[in-house]
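STRUCTURE:
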């Protein structure tokens, strides 16, 4: 049995986490989880009202993702999860699940703001983008992960992530390609 692999696609709201994670999961045959689905309703209500989350708000959200990744890993299932993971302390909680790597989607404020203005199906208002950038801590050299610019196509971005993190498709994905 191959050891399960786990990648958190991270970055500020509007950076393309869901799009990149979906394509990665399809290419690799891994299980995908949208981090937003782990938020308690109180967090969604707070963000919808234009209020940024604080560390206390984020703790149960991060623990829920960690526990889900840990459970999937115990089953030998590789996962892709979207999560802003803006601070090292947040990533530390996620790493408690076992070996987790991070793919940090990076872009400038103007590009991401423009993307957020076009979204109609998300509870995170563009007004919170500044607080996300203010909270963001770049990956440290000792964190297992990489940064990739959102300036490329989805295919280029996912290709860079797969190559840089040396990700391997699940056997089921390999069988589909044959």
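SEQUENCE:
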């Amino acid at each position: 049995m191959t050891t399960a692999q786990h990648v958190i696609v991270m970055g500020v709201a509007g950076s393309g986490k869901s799009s990149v994670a979906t394509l990665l999961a399809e290419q690799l045959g891994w299980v995908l989880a949208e981090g937003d689905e782990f938020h308690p309703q109180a967090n969604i209500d707070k963000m919808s009202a234009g209020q940024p989350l604080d560390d206390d708000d984020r703790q149960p959200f991060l623990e829920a993702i960690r526990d889900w990744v840990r459970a999937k890993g115990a089953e030998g299932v590789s996962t892709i999860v979207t999560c802003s993971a803006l601070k090292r302390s947040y990533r530390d909680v996620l790493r408690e699940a076992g070996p987790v790597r991070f793919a940090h989607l990076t872009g400038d404020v103007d590009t991401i703001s423009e993307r957020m203005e076009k979204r109609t199906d998300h509870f995170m208002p563009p007004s919170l983008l500044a607080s996300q950038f203010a909270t963001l801590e770049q990956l440290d050299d000792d964190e297992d992960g990489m940064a990739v610019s959102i300036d490329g196509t989805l295919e280029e971005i996912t290709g860079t992530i797969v190559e840089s993190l040396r990700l391997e498709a699940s056997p089921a994905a390999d069988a589909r390609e044959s």
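REMARK: The first strand starts at residue 6 and ends at 10.
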